Amino acid sequence: MDSDDRIDIRGLVRAHGARQLAIARLGAPDDWKGELHRTLAVQRAPQAIWTRSDLRLFVESFAIFFTATMIFLL
Question: From CA 28, how far away is CA 21, in angstroms rounded?
């Protein structure tokens, strides 16, 4: 390959982008905007501060700390 040869891949990149867009449109649901809004609403829903697993972890940690403190004091 000579250094004077230039490879123009812009057409290939555009064709690839067009194929990817066509594939995405075929796989998208009919009401894609509604589905997107519902998915985002679920992800943005406020999370509870104390979930069940957090409360259990706190109680177990406190029990271990309390036991270790009582052993140390005795």
Answer: 10
**Residue 62 structure tokens:** 């406190």
- Per-residue tokens: 59: 């109680």
Proportion of the chain above pLDDT 90, given as a percent: 43
Q: Residues 32-67: pLDDT tens digits?
A: 889 889 999 988 888 777 677 888 899 999 999 999
Contact yes or no for 29/35 (Cβ under 8 A) = yes
Residue 2 has pLDDT above 70, yes or no: no
Domains in the chain: boundaries: 7-45
- Give the Å distances, CA to CA, from 7 to 1, 11, 14, 20, 30: 11, 11, 15, 22, 40
Residues 6+ apart with CB under 8 A from 32: none
